[in-house]
Inverse folding.
């Protein structure tokens, strides 16, 4: 199996929590090596406690096996730590189209002030008259917001 | 791993150093998860359990690493579920009961503020795995600190009732903070070996992050007392045994069980 085939197979594996984007879009696939029909994939977790991590490993193995790999090894690395800065413009646009406000601004180096709340743009109507309802959402990576103009609630992908 | 694990005495210290950090995350995760389904409002139920999940993720990475350092075949589950009370090295602060929401929030803020300083200090650890876990965790801990600080401001500088409860939580918890910065031979040896900072070195960063929030919240910081809790030495309050009995019951009743 070629590297291109393997990348194509991985690019079709959706994120279990946000199926509008793939695990490649999410930036968690850090390396890929093909040795004949043996494929070695290196992934990094989004959050340390993300419960989807093990499901993603199974999905990777299944997708590559279906695409023709004889054996698949999935390694996990922690460094460099995953960041939302790795999401491409295209991925951000697809998140917004799916109804999740993409992370705003750079995740930075961890030195921003303790209490800081940017204005988040509503993915539905584009208004910035929005308010946070909950600092955490259905998953650790998201917060819950409501738009003051269209009145719809929406999720916000927090920069990290 | 490189030369830092060659010396067996240093290796034992290394194991204990990682275990102390791991156990702090694990025990606080267990305490916070007690709020699942009991939060005062749905949003806070979700927030506290999400923070618990982040802490559990840290604990898992750290315990797995500790198990590899120890090299006696214990994985993260064995270390979490099959050790007894005196083998846990978490500070007493994190094993205290949750109390009310004010006490839960303040305790978690105190520990998250300490973790934040610790993660910074571990970024250039000679142990690359520990440095990687720190680099990952500090980004999560920052969100915890931010969220908890907002509640301390809101409740401390809120109604008479919320202020009284937050002040009462501060009076109860404050004596247990000293342990986080107490000088200690294990910590000093780890620091000398370049593994990471000792607790005592984290005081200034903690004060700078935590005290302004307490002041803004109109809370009065109690005077220091000579009391020192000793959880990090394996001598715990009466609360840890009950916590472990609950946390470990399933794994001990059904050894090797998997989902």
């Amino acid at each position: 199996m070629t590297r291109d085939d393997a990348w194509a197979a991985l690019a079709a594996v959706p994120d279990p929590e946000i199926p509008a984007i793939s695990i490649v879009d999410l930036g968690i696939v850090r390396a890929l090596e093909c040795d004949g029909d043996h494929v070695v994939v290196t992934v990094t977790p989004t959050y340390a406690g993300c419960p989807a991590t093990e499901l993603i490993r199974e999905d990777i193995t299944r997708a590559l096996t279906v695409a023709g790999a004889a054996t698949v090894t999935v390694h996990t690395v922690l460094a460099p730590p995953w960041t939302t800065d790795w999401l491409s413009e295209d991925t951000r646009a697809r998140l917004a189209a799916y109804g999740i406000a993409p992370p705003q601004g750079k995740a930075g180096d961890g030195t921003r002030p303790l209490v800081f709340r940017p204005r988040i743009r509503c993915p539905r109507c584009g208004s910035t008259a929005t308010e946070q309802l909950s600092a955490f959402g259905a998953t650790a990576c998201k917060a819950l917001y409501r738009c003051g103009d269209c009145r719809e609630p929406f999720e916000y992908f927090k920069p990290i | 791993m490189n030369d830092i694990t060659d010396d067996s005495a240093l290796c034992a210290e290394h194991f204990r150093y990682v275990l102390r950090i791991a156990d702090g995350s694990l025990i606080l995760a267990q305490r916070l998860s007690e709020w699942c389904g009991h939060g005062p409002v749905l949003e806070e139920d979700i927030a506290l359990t999400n923070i618990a999940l982040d802490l559990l993720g840290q604990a898992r990475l750290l315990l797995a690493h500790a198990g590899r350092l120890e090299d006696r075949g214990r994985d993260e589950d064995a270390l979490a579920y099959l050790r007894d009370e005196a083998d846990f090295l978490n500070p007493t602060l994190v094993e205290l009961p949750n109390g009310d929401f004010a006490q839960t929030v303040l305790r978690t803020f105190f520990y998250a503020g300490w973790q934040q300083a610790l993660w910074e200090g571990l970024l250039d650890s000679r142990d690359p795995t520990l440095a990687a876990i720190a680099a990952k965790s500090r980004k999560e801990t920052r969100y915890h600190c931010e969220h908890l600080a907002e509640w301390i401001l809101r409740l401390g500088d809120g109604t008479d009732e919320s202020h009284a409860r937050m002040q009462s939580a501060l009076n109860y918890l404050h004596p247990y903070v000293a342990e986080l910065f107490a000088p200690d031979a294990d910590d000093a040896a780890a620091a000398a070996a370049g593994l990471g900072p000792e607790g005592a070195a984290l005081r200034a960063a903690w004060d700078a992050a935590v005290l302004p929030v307490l002041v803004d919240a109109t809370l009065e910081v109690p005077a220091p007392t000579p009391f020192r809790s000793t959880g990090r030495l394996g001598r715990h309050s009466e609360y840890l045994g009950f916590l472990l009995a609950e946390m470990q019951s399933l794994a001990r009743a059904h050894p090797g069980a998997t989902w």
Observations:
- Chain B has nine helices and no strands.
